[in-house]
Amino acid sequence: MTTTSLFTRDQVPALHAAIHDIVATTPVTDIHTHLYAPEFGGLLLWGIDEVLTYHYLIAEFFRASDMPSAQFWALDKQGQADAIWEALFIRQSPIGEACRGPLTVLDRLGLDVASRDLPQYRAWFAEQDPRRFLETVFEVARLKAAVMTNDPFDAAERPVWEAGYAGHPLLKAALRIDPLLNDWANAQERLKGWGYAVEAGLGAKTLAEVRRFLGDWVKRMQALYMAVSLPPEFAMPDKGPRGTLIEECVIPVAHEFNIPFAMMVGVRRQVNPLLKLAGDGVGTSDPAAVAYLCAKYPQNKFMVTMLSREDQHTLCVVARKFRNLLLFGCWWFLNNPSLIEEMTRMRLELLGPTVVPQHSDARILEQVIYKWEHSRVVIAKVLCDKYGDLVRTGWTVTRAEVERDVEGLLGGNFWRFLGRSL
């Protein structure tokens, strides 16, 4: 073997160079996003005004500006983008991660960041065709596939599926069931309107009908998994509607279709209602709820990410005990380089390369460019340290072994956990 494919303790710099190259160029499966195929029309958000008015930046805008919230919300999208640009990019340096992101996007798309010319950027985006632009963004971000978040309770999304949406080669579906699990009182009324014989009380007939509803939509969407966002207070076992629906409906349907149940735990909604979508916060959760489900249902698969930094160590320990649990991503408030690095180190040290260290959670198409570029740099940095530690013991590492491990971390572990291929 040549020194470019086999690395020993005397070749750490060459090993590090190879790791950075492999992580930067390996195609990614982004396992959780809020993107949509172009067939969903306005649900696919893209363009500089959408990038600038994402709730990450809105929250920071209200810290940097004295504009009353009512005045801001009365502005149209372009007006809000102009206000955010002025407050966060012109009147102060955009050093926060949420601000750095749009600049990375502009640069990688070939626009002149130094010009600070927002009207010019806006004109460039206006010339793009969304179908081709989606492909361009995926090429720039080196994504080979992404998983959408698909909610049959969404009045704008549901008709697209009912009209026979046939899928997109770059975008896969995941069945989102937040209204079902977090607001049963309203969900059951909607289910009745759609022809499912459900009642407020969760009797045997109602549970059977909920299972039928879930099965119908898993099949319609060809969903890769079912998913829910849960509050910090989420606990199992739970004799209330949420716990009953999970154990009596979600678990058996997930097992029937051999798909995971993905839980995103720790969102505290509307800490500041004046900020609307930007007003959500975070709370610490109890990973014991995850351990309960993994232990009671070993035949089922679970995917979990938690929003609070304080929950990460306990969650890693839970994952050491249950091979039916896949940890994924650094979500929302954790999507910052310092925290991505800390969490990735912890996961690799406790679980080896058996996790999915990142997902973009992108709601705006172009966000996948910066979220993946920034994350790849951090992931490569951590891997350099870990492989460096390894070869210093006398163990040798080949380029093919690094490529194998990185492929797993950037999506392969997800596909193998599902028991299928892209």
Description:
- The chain is α/β, with parallel strands linked by helices and 422 residues long.
- The protein has 2 domains: 6-45 and 136-418, Metal-dependent hydrolases (TIM Barrel), CATH 3.20.20.140; 47-127, Orthogonal Bundle (uronate isomerase, domain 2, chain A).
- The chain contains 18 helices and 12 strands.
- The strands form 4 sheets. Strands 5-6-7-10-11 form a 5-stranded parallel sheet. The protein has a 3-stranded parallel sheet with strand order 2-3-4. A two-stranded antiparallel ribbon has the order 1-12.
- Helix 9 (158-162) links the parallel strand 3 (143-147) and strand 4 (171-172).
- Helix 3 packs across helix 5, helix 12 (204-221) crosses helix 13 (241-257) and helix 15 packs parallel to helix 16 (337-351).
- The mean pLDDT is 97.
Keyword list:
422 residues, uronate isomerase, domain 2, chain A, 2 domains, alpha/beta
Number of helices: 18
Binned strand content: 5-15%
Reported for the largest beta sheet, the result is: 5 strands, parallel
Structural class: alpha/beta
Number of strands: 12
CATH level 1 name of the largest domain: Alpha Beta
Choose one word for the global shape: globular
What count of structural domains?
2
Task: Provide a compact summary of the structure.
The protein is α/β, with parallel strands linked by helices and 422 residues long. It is built from 18 helices and twelve strands.
Topology:
Elements: E1 6-7, H1 12-25, E2 28-30, H2 48-52, H3 55-64, H4 69-74, H5 77-90, H6 97-108, H7 118-126, H8 130-141, E3 143-147, H9 158-162, E4 171-172, E5 175-176, H10 178-182, H11 184-193, H12 204-221, E6 226-230, H13 241-257, E7 261-265, E8 267-268, E9 281-282, H14 288-296, E10 302-306, H15 312-321, E11 325-327, H16 337-351, H17 367-391, E12 397-398, H18 399-418
Parallel strand pairs: 2-3, 3-4, 5-6, 6-7, 7-10, 10-11
Antiparallel strand pairs: 1-12, 8-9
Helix pairs in contact: 1-17, 1-18, 3-5, 6-17, 8-17, 12-13, 15-16, 16-17
